[in-house]
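name: query_chain
kind: protein
chains: 1
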Amino acid sequence: MKILVTGGLGFIGSHTVVELQNKGYKVVIIDNCSNSSPDVLQGIQSITGKKPIFEQFDLREKEKVQNFFSRHDDIEGVIHFAASKAVGESVENPLLYYENNLSTLIYILQQLSYKKSANFIFSSSCTVYGQADELPITENAPVKPAESPYGNTKQIGEEIIRDTCKVTKNLKAISLRYFNPTGAHPSAEIGELPIGVPQNLIPFITQTAIGLREKLSVFGNDYPTSDGTCIRDYIHVVDLAKAHVVALQRLIDDKNTTNYEVFNVGTGTGSTVLEVIQSFEKVSGQKLNYQIVGRREGDITAAYADTTKANNELDWKAESKLDDSLSSAWKWEQKVRG
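structure:
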């Protein structure tokens, strides 16, 4: 069974390709390598023993998308990761984000609407909830006005898929709203490799520990939390990748209850920034150079998932702990810089 993974050389995409191939799927990757590298293919092959089919082009080129689907008319499902994801950059360049994150989604859905049956998994985000009124966050929590163009593209993306599913009865789709992906494959063959300054906490921690960054800034210690720092739900990327595979299998097996569904994907446990730092220092044996600075605009106090729906309906549960995520991220960092 042939599955298309867009953005399949990226952090979450590459780990999902590994899990798909481990389950026997034939995988085709489309990636423009704007924030990834073809070298990742070697890492995937080292883990699974199989090299996925890879095509390098930009999904904003509509004719190339049409041409791809005419050549691969046996695609049974699509997992769509390809998108720009830096919050700060989206504020500075909103039109780039709206073009890149929405036009690509539309072009793929247009091609799927021509098929007899199509299964689609969308890479969404807990950013759609903003600062939720209640914790943990369930799928029924209201979607809040977006804090950034990036967050807005996830909200609009979900709306586009929902509207398309209403009229395209042959299309089944699931949006996975995930929390904070971390870690790396235990083999250290693939992991997170941000280009430039990391936007996320864990790679900034590992790059600071290895000496690439002088110090880690902790943005604010006056939040209403146990130690004053922000709380997030950090999920190991392998657990997250497995959630994509079971969600896809749910659609293929016709186990979905409606043709558009939404699931939270997280651990269900919130960790403060200082707890993450302490966990890293424990598993790595490294003392981390960090300093408390002022709050960062747009940061919410706390976000962690209620995963009951995913646990029950997808029969999926996060298995790795925070220590596992940080240990694998550190192993990967050491390999990359070695």
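note: The chain has a mean pLDDT of 97.
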